[in-house]
Amino acid sequence: MKMHMEHIFFFGIALAVVGLAGIIYCIGAAQRCRQAQISDGEMRTRLDKLVKINLISLMIAMLGGLCAIVAGLLA
Predict the structure, then answer these.
(1) How far apart are alpha carbons 18 and 64 in whole angstroms?
(2) How far apart are CA 26 and CA 46, in angstroms?
(3) Structural domain that includes position 65
(4) Which of 6, 16, 19, 39 has CB atoms 3.0–4.6 Å from 60's, for a disulfide?
């Protein structure tokens, strides 16, 4: 049983890292959009896509952290 919890713990950590990488990507992409000389419509389109990626990344990071915490408590 303990071995399975360790796998779940490390899986949760990996999910959290992937989610944080997605959030960092969104920050960088938003900065690049801000510095680019593009129209308002194009800016809105790019930022709409980034909001979706950001929310998905936040959810993945949260689920990974929750998974790691629960596995750590139960082990």
Answers:
(1) 9
(2) 11
(3) 2-74
(4) 19
pLDDT digits (tens, 9 = 90+) for 25-65: 999 999 999 999 899 999 999 999 999 999 999 999 999 99
What are the tokens at 33? 């959009």
Q: What sign does the dihedral 22-26-28-29 (CA atoms) show?
A: positive
Q: What is the DSSP letter of 37?
A: -
Kindly give, in sequence order, each residue whose CB lies less than 8 Å from that of residue 20, ignoring residues fewer than 6 positions away: 57, 61
**What distance in Å separates the CA atoms of residue 17 and residue 65, rounded to the nearest whole number?**
9
The structural domain count of the chain equals 1
Please say if the pLDDT value at position 2 is more than 70.
Answer: no
Q: What distance in Å separates the CA atoms of residue 28 and residue 13, rounded to the nearest whole number?
A: 23
